[in-house]
Structures are given as C-alpha cells and as structure tokens.
Amino acid sequence: MTEILHFTKMEALGNDYIYIDRDRYPSLDYPTIARRYSDRHTGIGGDGVVTYSRHDAESFEMHIYNKDGSEAEMCGNAIRCVAKLLHEEGRTEAQSLRIHTGAGLLTVELLFDEEKEVTGARVEMGIPEVIETPEMVEGVEGYVASMGNPHFVILSQEDFPLETKGQLLEQSCRFPEGTNIEVIRPIDKHTLEMRVWERGSGLTRACGTGACASAAVAIRLGLVLSPVCVRMPGGNLTIEWSGEESRPLYMTGPATRVFDGTLQLR
Question: How many CA atoms lie within 13 A of 185 on its CB side?
C-alpha cells in the first residue's frame, strides 16, 4: 500500500532538513526515512529529518534525526525553522513559542519583517556547560562543552583538517555517544570563524548549537566578548552570553522555507 507523505524542506544558514508534521504521521519509521531521503543524489537531500508536533496546549516538541538515522538532542538551526513553520501553518499565533527538545524546554521569539513575514528567531538556548581545561583527544587539543548535546571545540589559527579528523574525533572513545566538532578562530573581540563536523551528518555548512558552544568556550577563555558574531560557511549567527554559569545563552539567526513536496512511501 502506498502512503503519500507531505513534507517541507527548510534551511537555516545552509543547515537544511526535511520537516515532517509528526501529529499527521505519528507512527513512521523516522530513522529509516532520514537515511533514505537525506541522500542528495537519490533522495530529497538534507542534513537529516526534523519532526514537529503538539506537546500540550501551551507548547510543541521537535525531534532531530541525522542523515545516518541517529537522533540528536538538539539543533539550533532547526528549532528556528520549526518555529517559523508552526507560525506559517497557523498552528499558533504566538510570537513566543515553547518547544520541547532532547536538550530541554526552550523559548523561541519569532522575528518579523515589515510585511509580517517570519524571517528568523531569537532562541533561549539554556545554560552552557564548559570545561575550561583543555583535553587531548586522538592527538588533538580541544575543549569539551555541552548545549544539551556534546561538543569538542578546537582553537586553530591554521587550516585544521576537519575533513579527515572529524569522523575520528566524533567516534573517539572519549565520547561514547559521539560528539560534534567545531574548529574556531577568533577574528576580533566580537567575531569568531567556525567550521563544523556534525555528529551523524559529517561536514555541514552551519550548526546552531555548535556556534553556541564555540562562543561559550571563547567567552569563558576571554577570547571574545558578548555579543559574538559566529561566521560559518553558511552564514552568521549572533550569540549572547554573560559568561555566568547561572545565566542562559541566546542565539539569533534566520530561517528559510525552501519548498513543500510529497513522497510516495511503500
């Protein structure tokens, strides 16, 4: 029996996912869908699949499946897209949304242009966890951090071979559940350059939680000051954090709807 699946393709700074309404399709095998349709040659193409659904009367929830089918706790770029999608589909009229993720319940403030179109969002990302003492992992020195999901942040003034080292670090025994790897270079007191290898997806053009973790590490080390512009191959995010352990971090960036489509599932 053939089932027609409706989806939306969205991207934020080139971090693109296939978005599916989980309320409409509650029992699909989402890991398999992510593996099958994330392929850019034989599928829709993307960094994975994101589902969104109603959690209760006052909040929603999202799930992220990487292109290898593994589930991620959180995606900073995806949560902005989910908020935009919920608003555009008429699921909510609120400008401030509460969205449950694997990293906890987060608040998303929608941003609008003069024509009342959603252009992006400012997200309260929770409190970063940063270990300020560097660690040596697989011969590479970096800083372990968490935004509800794991990160290994590497300071580099030269071209670090992320293409060849990324998978080795991701799968290191130091990180039994895998990790995201960011390579950063401070440009000035309010600017970082960043490249990322995402756990389960490989090299991507941007990573929201990676930008947050990188800025948090750099702020705690005194390399930059808030607000921080994190430059990635896909574009820029603005990160705000006081550096205090009890204060949340905020991320601001765009979200773009690319197209809507259908799949024939068998």
Answer: 9
* pLDDT tens digit sequence for 79-102: 999 999 999 999 999 999 999 999
81 is catalytic: no
For 146, the token pair is 């968490």
pTM above 0.85, yes or no: yes
Query: Catalytic residue among 75, 81, 173, 212, which?
Result: 75
* 27 three-class SS: coil
From CA 256, how far away is CA 167, in angstroms rounded? 29
Strand, coil or helix: 225:
coil
Per the residue annotation, which of 173, 207, 212, 229 is the catalytic one?
Answer: 207
CA distances from 164 to 149, 173, 213 (A): 22, 17, 22
Based on the residue annotation, tell me whether 75 is a catalytic residue of this protein.
Answer: yes
Instruction: Classify strands 140-146 and 256-265 as parallel, antiparallel or unpaired.
Output: unpaired
What average pLDDT does the structure give for the chain?
96
Q: At what angle do helices 208-220 and 76-88 cross, to 10 degrees?
A: 130
222 sits in the region (left: phi over 0; alpha: psi -120 to 50; else beta) called left
Six token digits for residue 232: 């990635």
Pairing of strands 118-124, 71-72: unpaired
